[in-house]
Amino acid sequence: MNSRTLQRISAETAKWIFRAASIFSVLALLLITVFLIAYGAPAIFEIGPKEFLLGTQWQPNAKIFGILPMILASIYITLGAALIGFPLGLLTAVFLAEVAPPRLANLVRPLIKLLAGIPSVVCGFFGLMVLVPRIMDIQGAGNSMLAAMIILGIMILPTVVSISETALRAVPSSYKEASYALGESRISTIFRVTIPAAKSGILTSFALGAGRAIGEATAVALVAGNKVQIPSSIFDSVRTLTTNCVFEMGYASGLHQRALFATAVILFILIILINIALSVLGNKEEKHE
């Protein structure tokens, strides 16, 4: 068997390995989707879509399952975390990719990655012991949406920073050189050329960060409180879709358990909608250009 034959066999083997990996990933997503729909969708229709999605009371003992307060709490907390984490993450990525000296960037980058490795329960304990008392000094209840927003804003930083930095570094240097040749400053080039050119990767980082924020349970359970109510202030205690499942799945049964699976279905749909919205936003910007 000559070397050319070995190379061809190796190439075919690698191709099938890659294909098998991609098929496995798609199957995993399909299995999760089918599992959630099979266990959760019937409960939505048994309870009633309107009562389930727009109901404001969650009382399993009375067979009342309304998740509107938890939907709103999840959305508000995710938006708050995005307002904190997206700008900080993007600016940090710009600093690492375009501004920081190599030595400083090589020092900061591992620290950002280390933040990604901190367990969510540790972040929750930090919020419980540090943030909650500070918020309590400002406004009565410390366990609140604000505490959850800040903690999640910190937790999504590594995702936003790492993916955005990769996207920024992938921008061809010719783009920046052309901008400099036209008399633009370094900062102007970053914000008018580099960031727009890397927007696809940046939007991807935002989508993954938002998915992480809306899907987090442990840290939110420790700092957001556990009150099922429609929030009217960032200082209100709330319960999110994820924490609802965490708090009650251990002892739920029958319709109560199926309602929790239905809650997971709604959470899954919200994550899909976030990704679709950011994809549509990115496509619109590309068409305008």
What report would you give on this structure?
This protein is mainly α and 289 residues long. The protein has a domain at 68-255: MetI-like fold, CATH 1.10.3720.10. Helix content is 79%, strand content 1%. The chain has a two-stranded antiparallel sheet with strand order 1-2. The model has no long low-confidence stretch (mean pLDDT 88).
Task: For this entry, give a set of tags.
289 residues, 2 strands, mainly alpha
SSE topology:
Layout: H1 3-47, H2 49-54, E1 58-59, E2 64-65, H3 68-99, H4 102-116, H5 120-138, H6 145-155, H7 157-169, H8 173-181, H9 186-197, H10 199-215, H11 218-223, H12 241-248, H13 254-288
Antiparallel strand pairs: 1-2
Helix pairs in contact: 1-13, 3-6, 3-7, 3-10, 4-7, 5-6, 7-10, 8-9, 10-13, 12-13
Provide a concise account of the structure shown.
The chain contains 13 helices and 2 strands. With 289 residues, the protein is an all-alpha fold. The chain is globular, with a radius of gyration of 23 Å.
Mean pLDDT over all positions: 88
Percent strand: under 5%
Total helical segments = 13
- CA radius of gyration is 23 Å
